[in-house]
Amino acid sequence: MKGVVKYLKKYTFLIILAITFVVIQAILNLYLPDLMGDIVNKGVSRGNVDYILSVGWKMLFVTLLNVAAAIVSTYFAAKVAMGFGKDLRSHGSILILLVEITSPDSEILIILLSEYKVKVL
Q1: What are the GO cellular component annotations (predicted)?
Q2: DSSP symbol at 69
């Protein structure tokens, strides 16, 4: 594991940014039900259409922020993944990929991938 982590060190800032935007996404996702509850409790139950529209616009804004955070976090995560993969391949490292095959025996297939060879165990 330590051998793999050394390739990630130069991407620390991008990893922190990706995680930050995922946390922002989670917070915004958790805020939406509160807004919906406000619409029902303070708007629908009292028949206050102006309040419903105002909170509805706020919900739309929060949703758009959520989409933007998702796009940004995906962008940073993709930059890390592409750079990490490039670094691993350029140093001739071997990746181990575990693929579970659904069969009556529930076997696990281990595929060793390198730049020049594919070996199935």
Answers
A1: plasma membrane
A2: H
DSSP H helix total and E strand total for the chain? 3, 3
Residues forming beta bridges with residue 109, ordered by sequence position: 99
Sheet containing strand 118-120, edge to edge, reads: 95-100, 108-113, 118-120
SS3 category, 96: strand
Q: What was the pLDDT predicted at 2?
A: 65
Q: Please count the other Cβ atoms lying within 10 Å of the Cβ belonging to residue 67.
A: 12
CA distance 3 to 87: 12
Q: What is the pTM of this model?
A: 0.69
